[in-house]
Design goal:
The complex is a heterodimer of chains A (189) and B (982). Chain A has helices at 42-53, 92-100, 123-127, 174-188; strands at residues 16-18, 23-26, 30-36, 63-65, 72-77, 80-86, 105-108, 113-119, 145-150, 153-161, 164-170. Chain A is α+β, with helices and mostly antiparallel strands and 189 residues long. A six-stranded antiparallel sheet of chain A has the order 1-2-8-11-10-9, with helices on one face. In chain B, strand 22 (384-387) and strand 23 form a beta hairpin. The radius of gyration of chain B is 38 Å and the shape is elongated. The chains are: A alpha+beta (189), B alpha+beta (982).
């Protein structure tokens, strides 16, 4: 009997490429856990988050950064946020649940999404070709997050640095999404 | 060939020479030239043939309104027909050919059409080709289509790439002439985010073509300084070669940017980008287009618009003729005379239709006031003119000005109607503009430079202020008001020969008269009857002329006559630009399961289901027909064990205190009492009582369920449930999130499936039949600690499970399953075998859940619980859905077991004719059952349950065979369900 231990595989095999002015790299060392607010439980959840993460509940379209500077809570819609944090392994759900207890409903989304980091001065020019949103630095500030469509593919975009964007899209169409983003970069170089 | 008509520098760079060819002749031009200016520089006036009559045509304008000078650019697959020479930028190596002629440009065989004029007037095909009727499609239409038309497509796939994009701004300024530049400057200085777009490759608009002064400096220099100031502003984006072609809802504008059309090669980059511009305010500064006057043979090469002639001389340093005459009804025409004379061009005459004292004329020019041109002579190029008094004037170029039409097009894209202004004899924008748009400059009827600058300056400031910016206090640029009087004059009635209104579509004054005579007098009728304004130029130089002549004929005023509707695009947009990247395999995204790579290694044949690529079957060496592979996969699964990737089924994570109650409401059958650790089959109805989707839902914890949907309905079911949650029962504590992508899920089916799984599931989890019976579910670990979910459910009818692991382990999991299954001769099976087994078992799928069938039709009527309410419950009780003779899902087998059933066949009672009245139902799914050794089918037939054993005809008139089939139970294999409980 062969060794049947299962080895994890990121959706794009750890893709990374520096195009000069824009760098695109798969994020494989982060977890994503959705947190739903129970009806009427907003205060309790806010308190638990304040206590465990030292930050506030994000409003939809914004994110808050935990005191440790690692976990970022992305406000995606009413009563739903994603916790985005560095994590190695498959116990992301427990990592959040252990901190917040029964204050929210949690679903591991780490494997649902392909996550790409687009960084560099040319990020905006490249994103103009696929992202319908206004990403002007004054409009889409650091920490802002939004759901949108890129080349007909549903996506989440987060700006988490001066010239840094995190792009998330469904894992199954990761290759189409990568192609869309890569083409956008190549087309403007 | 020398550039015999190059008389100066203009704004071209004569220090560099570019080489290009026209119809094979090598010619020279300079950077800054258009193809049209370079052709004129080389003394070429005759550049193409007209649409219908194949009349020789020349260059008529100097801009995007050009009706005549359409050429084919480039060669091979890159060839592009109908390119306007007047906007094609010259580059080294450019290749252009004339179009729409048989034989050479000079000796076009189809020029005989011009002699057939009496037969080819407006609406000729409605009248001429009536008989015999059958000839229309087969003879007349192909003949007409073949002889008409303009350029030819290459017939090859477009090798260029195109892109799209999205831009946002506070103020979009459309057009970078004096008004646009002034507007962009003020809006930009106020701090607004400005986009300035112009279709030309150089900013300046008419300033580039004139000799005006602004703020004491040369107009061109002023434009250059303005552009430099704008370029230095971070908040301003300058977009040349960009045509804003449409005004859409909510301040959204379409724009086409030509990225590499001016370069010999695109270098692998998109040739054009189609932008969607989101603006808060838009300033239309699109200028005006000059119009012609109708007189005999006014389409001769060499007859041009006066403003264009001036453009060639001033901007390009090219004179379109050696001896130029001017025919005008306004002061602007005189400007052409002066500018040309200034550059040393001989002015033969200035003919002004207005009476009175003439303005000062250039030295040596004959002046004829109150006169007009009746005819132009010179078949391949103008030679002479005849005036109303019979006088003949020798000239090789006639500059015509019938006044200027403000470019109101974009103001009309949302049904705005322009209004007539008698003082400038032109339509100006009406009051009903697209939201956020205002108009300034000549586009609004500010026909002098000083007025345009002032209006642009004011409009830019107003837009900025409106958006909360502080307007800059800098004064508007100043210039003199030039003379701009005009007296409407549309046609020379004394002309005896044909006079063209719309040159591109070959519509003459006579055609307009014919339309009037035939009763097509409304402008929209006029347009359709004569094709006026319907060509690629959309009648930019023709429309107003046509309707003015109609107004004269009907005795109505021009405002009473009205205008046709302008629609996007303002200028032609290649279909390739609309397609953008959506070509070939990038037409739409594709989705892959986590076992895709492994399945490829196995040589799987894939099928598209929605956007998913799923393994359809796995051919083995020696198998030459797909049926061999599928039969093997079915037989070995039923004989031992098979593995199939079922990740594509929708998975919805449902949590909340009221999750059970919620499910009880969306499913027709009860879910409130489903114990933790159990899975249940569920049927969902639409509000109208029709079956919507089915699947299984497992209760993982008191307040935590996971639902599966069919692959096809994964999104629509999620959307439906979100609607229920948010709109129908907002008080329930329920939260949904898709988990389809999170888990890689595999069906493990067959009598040895448990044994296989026991090798992978970690030992502390007991999955024996007793501990983990049929319909059990559990969260457990596999392969030494990897989290997993196990469901004991069966689609195949065998002892079966579905095992899910986080998607990151999907690839490893399929390999582990196949390795662990080696001892049991495990087989991988695809969607085809999956389908065969579900038909053998009698499970409904997409073919049966058609959106027209009810739970009762599917034989699941009793699942619609009457002990509770659920979506669709009440309407499922409608009489029409509960008829005695309603359809029922049953099985069918051929009486002659050797025959093959066909899905889509309709059932008719034996002996009755195959007609719609006798139709009793249809075959939904068929398969070759390797288990039974013959073809089997599922289908709907009236009163099916009462007719077991009856033989009916499965009629298939389309494919021409009628088969006798026997009605049987839909459960062909293991009807008692013993296997799946084993």
């Amino acid at each position: 009997m062969p060794d049947l231990t299962l080895t994890a595989q990121p959706p794009l095999g750890g893709f990374s490429h520096d195009f000069g002015g824009a760098k695109l790299a798969e994020i494989a060392d982060h977890a994503l856990v959705s947190i739903a607010t129970p009806n009427g439980g907003e205060k309790k959840l806010a308190a638990a988050i304040k206590k465990s993460y030292g930050c506030a509940l994000p409003r939809p379209g914004q994110s808050t950064l935990a005191k440790d500077g690692d976990t970022r809570l992305l406000g995606l819609q009413r009563d739903q946020m994603f916790a985005f944090f560095a994590h190695d392994g498959d116990q992301a759900l427990a990592a959040v649940a252990n901190k917040l207890g029964d204050a929210g409903y949690y679903t591991d989304q780490s494997d649902s999404w392909v996550m790409l980091r687009l960084s560099g001065e040319l990020s905006w020019t490249a994103l103009e070709r696929i992202c319908p949103l206004d990403l002007h630095p004054d409009v889409f500030a650091v920490g802002d997050v939004a759901r949108t469509m890129m080349e007909h593919i549903g996506a989440v975009i987060l700006r988490d640095g001066k010239t840094d964007f995190v792009l998330m899209s469904a894992r199954s169409s990761a290759r189409s999404f990568l192609h869309a983003v890569e083409t956008s970069i190549r087309n403007i170089l | 060939m020398a550039q015999i008509n190059r008389i100066g520098e203009g704004l071209v760079d004569t220090s560099r020479t570019l080489s290009f060819t026209f119809n094979g002749d090598t010619l020279a031009g300079h950077p800054g030239d258009t193809l049209a200016s370079a052709l004129l520089a080389n003394g070429i006036r005759f550049v193409g043939r007209s649409f219908k009559y194949h009349r020789p045509r020349g260059i008529f304008t100097a801009g995007s309104e050009e009706p005549n000078a359409l050429v084919q650019l480039r060669t091979g697959a890159h060839q592009e027909p109908n390119t306007r020479a007047t906007v094609a930028e010259l580059f080294d190596g450019l290749t252009a050919t004339s179009q729409n002629h048989r034989g050479s440009l000079k000796f076009d065989l189809l020029a005989m059409n011009d002699l057939l004029t009496p037969f080819l007037g407006a609406g000729f095909y409605y009248k001429t080709f009536m008989w015999p009727k059958s000839f229309w499609e087969k003879v007349y239409e192909p003949l007409i289509r073949n002889s008409a038309g303009l350029g030819r497509l290459s017939g090859e796939a477009d090798p260029d790439s195109y892109d799209k994009g999205f831009l946002h701004c506070d103020v979009l300024v459309i057009g970078a002439g004096p008004a646009g530049l002034a507007a962009a400057l003020t809006a930009g200085r106020a701090g607004a985010r400005v986009i300035l777009a112009d279709e030309d490759f150089r900013f300046g608009g008419r300033l580039l073509a004139e000799t005006h002064e602004i703020d004491g400096a040369d107009g061109v220099d002023w434009a250059e300084q303005a552009v430099a100031e704008l370029a230095a502003m971070d908040n301003v984006r300058l977009m040349s070669r960009t045509c804003v072609h449409g005004a859409f809802d909510h301040g959204i504008y379409g724009a086409l940017e030509r990225k590499t059309d001016h370069l010999p090669k695109s270098g692998g980059k998109p040739r054009q980008v189609l932008w969607r511009i989101y603006s808060r305010r838009a300033l239309l500064c699109a200028g005006a287009t000059e119009r012609s006057i109708c007189f005999g043979n006014n389409d001769r090469p060499g007859v041009m618009l006066a403003g264009a002639v001036r453009t060639y001389v001033n901007r390009f340093g090219v004179t379109p003729g050696q001896r130029v005459a001017i025919f005008t009804n306004n002061d602007d025409g005189w400007r052409t005379a002066h500018d040309l004379a200034e550059k040393g061009v001989e002015i033969a005459a200035v003919i002004d239709s207005r009476d009175g004292t003439p303005p000062a004329a250039p030295h040596g020019a004959m002046v004829a006031m109150g006169s007009a041109v009746t005819n132009a002579a010179g078949r391949h190029g103008l030679r002479s003119l005849t005036l109303t008094n019979g006088q003949t004037i020798q000239a090789d170029c006639l500059a015509v000005s019938g006044g200027w039409n403000p470019n109101v097009h974009l103001t009309c894209h949302q049904r705005g109607r322009p209004v007539w202004r008698q003082d400038i004899a032109a339509f100006v924008p009406g009051g009903d503009l697209p939201v956020g748009m205002s108009v300034a400059g000549a586009a609004k009827g500010d026909m002098t430079l000083s007025a345009a600058l002032k209006a642009g300056h004011g409009a830019g400031n107003a837009a900025a202020k409106d958006l909360g910016f502080t307007a800059s206090r800098k004064a508007a640029p100043k210039s003199d008001d030039e003379a701009a009087d005009v007296t409407a004059f549309w046609q020379v009635r004394e002309s005896k020969t044909r006079a063209w209104v719309d040159q591109q579509n070959d519509v003459t004054v006579k055609d307009v008269k014919l339309a009037h005579q035939d009763g097509f007098r409304a402008v929209e009728h006029l347009k359709r009857y004569t094709t006026l304004g319907m060509a690629t130029d959309q009648g930019k130089t023709a429309n107003v002329l046509g309707l003015a002549i109609m107004a004269e004929l009907t005795g109505r005023t021009i405002p009473e006559t009205g205008t046709t509707v302008f629609r996007p695009p303002y200028s032609p947009v290649p279909i390739g630009a609309f397609a953008g990247r959506s070509r070939g395999k990038d037409f739409r995204p594709y989705r892959l399961t986590t076992s895709h790579g492994w399945a490829e290694e196995q040589g799987a044949v894939f099928v598209e289901t929605g956007m998913w690529l799923r393994a359809q079957w796995f051919p083995q060496p020696g198998e030459t027909h797909w049926r061999q592979s599928v039969d093997r996969e079915v037989t070995r699964t039923r004989g031992s064990v098979g593995v199939c990737d079922v990740t594509t089924l929708g998975k919805i994570d449902i949590q909340g205190r009221d999750a059970a109650e919620f499910l009880n409401k969306v499913y027709a059958n009860g879910f409130a009492k489903l114990p933790v650790g159990k899975t249940r089959y569920g049927l969902m109805l639409r509000e109208d009582g029709i079956a919507m989707d089915d699947g299984t839902t497992a209760r993982l914890a008191e307040n935590h369920f996971v639902m599966t949907t069919t692959t096809a309905n994964a999104v629509s079911v999620f959307r439906h449930m979100e609607f229920c949650r948010q709109c129908l029962w907002p008080g329930l504590d329920v939260h949904l999130i898709s988990a389809t992508e999170q888990w890689a899920q595999f069906a493990v089916a067959g009598p040895n499936s448990r044994k296989l799984l026991q090798k992978l599931v970690d030992a502390e989890h007991d999955i024996s039949n007793e501990a983990f019976p049929f319909m059990a579910c559990a969260e457990l670990t596999v392969c030494g600690g990897t989290p997993a979910r196990l469901f004991r459910i069966s689609f195949s009818g065998e002892l079966a499970y579905e095992i899910a692991v986080p998607a990151r382990y999907g690839d490893a999991m399929v390999r582990a399953l196949m390795a662990a299954g080696e001892a049991f001769d495990v087989v991988a099976y695809g969607t085809e075998a999956l389908g065969v087994m579900r038909i053998e078992k009698g499970h409904a799928a997409g073919n049966e859940l058609t959106g027209q069938t009810t739970a009762r039709d599917l034989g699941l009527g009793r699942m619609v619980s009457k002990k509770k309410d659920c979506i669709g419950n009440t309407l499922s009780e409608r009489e029409g859905l509960n008829r005695e003779d309603g359809l029922t899902l049953v099985g069918f087998r051929p009486v002659d077991r050797a025959t093959e059933l066909k899905a889509g066949a309709h059932f008719v009672v034996k002996g009755k004719p195959v007609t719609t009245e006798n139709d009793q139902g249809w075959m939904t799914s068929v398969a070759w059952s390797p288990t039974l050794g013959h073809s089997i089918g599922l289908g709907f037939i009236q009163r099916g349950h009462d007719r077991m054993g009856e033989t009916v005809i499965a009629a298939d008139p389309l494919r021409g065979n009628d088969i006798e089939v026997e009605i049987v139970s839909p459960h062909f294999v293991d009807p008692e369900g013993e296997r799946l409980r084993a």
